[in-house]
Amino acid sequence: MSLNSIFQYFVPKDRKFFPLFEQATANLVDISTCLVKVVSTTDEDKKIAFYKEIERLEHVGDDVTHQILLELSKNFITPFDREDIHALATAIDDVADYIYGSANRLNLYKITQATDSMVELAVLIQQACSDLHKAVCELKDLKNFRNITDSCVRINSAENQADHVFNKAVADLFDHEENALVIMKYKEILSVLETATDKCEDAANVMESILVKHA
Amino acid sequence: MSLNSIFQYFVPKDRKFFPLFEQATANLVDISTCLVKVVSTTDEDKKIAFYKEIERLEHVGDDVTHQILLELSKNFITPFDREDIHALATAIDDVADYIYGSANRLNLYKITQATDSMVELAVLIQQACSDLHKAVCELKDLKNFRNITDSCVRINSAENQADHVFNKAVADLFDHEENALVIMKYKEILSVLETATDKCEDAANVMESILVKHA
Amino acid sequence: MSLNSIFQYFVPKDRKFFPLFEQATANLVDISTCLVKVVSTTDEDKKIAFYKEIERLEHVGDDVTHQILLELSKNFITPFDREDIHALATAIDDVADYIYGSANRLNLYKITQATDSMVELAVLIQQACSDLHKAVCELKDLKNFRNITDSCVRINSAENQADHVFNKAVADLFDHEENALVIMKYKEILSVLETATDKCEDAANVMESILVKHA
């Protein structure tokens, strides 16, 4: 009996990890959508409502991560390698943390209008989160593993694009902005946004590694 | 024979890991106490003595970490999962590194008087280190596992408070300080202090995960 | 049959991991040599050629890392612990990433002349990469394990020196440079260079851990 067939045997029985991972990435879709909204409006009241919602969703994500790690501690048999489950849960949690971190800084640093680069990065994060959710939903049977691969390729591409947007935006800041305080604030927010896409890529890498072992 | 009872069987025999972990967290209590002293004085001579002591204690911590990882490499049977021992040792080492990193920057950047936020963060680090030590000392028999849980809850709370202190301090800097160089120096020191509490939380998370498996 | 002899038995058969690791560290020698060249010239055309070469070598490194992780996913039996192979491949990949990251920032921030500290750090990175390659080439038979230990000691020493160069350079910047934008750019480049030596040390630590288990 190959490892693969052992896997096929256990997967249908898993009622714990897959629903939790789907909750975690559905939450990423929500929180990233909220981030796009917050950088796309200049209405202060709406912004405050979005900031609060992002904070709430970050706590929701924390709870789901905590449940996944708890299940991992309690269960001897898991549908994937323990290290992959841990790495995937952690990467998804990190995405939510960095989304919250960027929104929190926009708020604290009183940025009334996000720059075009920030909007571009928020949209790339949203795309990557949407692909993460699609990929995670396919993990439970792996019948359409090509869909997972396609999502992972798009996530890698979003991360590459985010790198370019970030590098160009920072070089532009140094070229055109003279106020060091503004540069510091913007550069940090851009950096936190870019790191969110890195964490999406980390999650995609874990899924590709799961695919290699099982598909 | 359950994993748990295997564990109970081996634990009394462990003479290697528990004493080393207790040394490592006792060292954290010392180095964090020294950090509180350094941010609480404006006496230059005392400060220099504290900086030297913090550097010495950081080396002591390095040696203990090295011994733990060496024991881990040499021993096939360990009282906890290998990954947990590695993660706990690394997190404790990171706490000492960040405490030293913050003291070193206070010295290099010639900060003659630490800000109130820096003092608050140093005190939170000291509290978290004290709780880490208490929790580690209970690990060897797990009879009073609720004490470990209580310590971990307090460490998580210290980390949350440190987040708030940090975010507020940085926002205040941007609001009230005009000198970009001062902002850069202070922000970096605050960030290193805040990261020390993150590493305390990492260590607490490992202990909670050990508890779930064994208590 | 001891673990050690099982190891000795399997090692001669490994045709996958050792050649890939040697490729990965040979690539580090190339990319770090290119970094030294880029910080040692003020000729703009040569610099652009070096920047492009560093980018190309970073992609080469990515491909090798990807192959190592793919082999790791496909192979049940590996010459070292799976976690060590993963950690070593990741650390080597990180070194290349940080070298590329520093070159990319030199380019984006339009630094026409690298500072003495940047040159010193680039030379330390090159030395550490050269030692990493030497050590990795000895991993396949471990007959001369003392050579590996010697390389690791030199890498640790290079990292320590890099720490001192970095700390002194940043303190000097705050003391002698008034332009906050210049400080921000230089400090970030120095920090990325210093982190490259940290990643060399991470790789050396993995090799020392492999030695403890097998030599």
Would you kindly provide a written description of the structure presented here, covering whatever features stand out?
The structure is a homotrimer of 215-residue chains. The first copy, chain A, is an all-alpha fold. Chain A has one domain: Methane Monooxygenase Hydroxylase, Chain G, domain 1, CATH 1.20.58. The first copy, chain A, contains seven helices and no strands. Chain A has helices spanning 3-10, 17-40, 44-74, 82-108, 116-138, 145-176, 180-214. In chain A, helix 2 packs antiparallel against helix 5, helix 4 (82-108) runs antiparallel to helix 7 (180-214) and helix 5 (116-138) packs parallel to helix 7. Chain A starts with a helix and ends with a helix. The model of chain A is unreliable at 1-6 (pLDDT under 50). Chains in contact: A-B, A-C, B-C.
Rg calculated over all Cα atoms of chain A: 19 Å
**Helix residue percentage of chain A:** over 70%
CATH homologous superfamily of chain A, by name? Phosphate transport system protein phou homolog 2, domain 2
User: What is the count of distinct domains of chain A?
Assistant: 1
Number of helices of chain A: 7
Question: Which architecture name of chain A does CATH use?
Answer: Up-down Bundle
Main sheet overview of chain A: none
Give the overall shape of chain A. Answer: globular
Determine the CATH topology of chain A. Answer: Methane Monooxygenase Hydroxylase, Chain G, domain 1
Number of strand elements of chain A: 0
The percentage of residues in β strands of chain A lies in under 5%
Oligomerization category of the chains in this entry: homotrimer
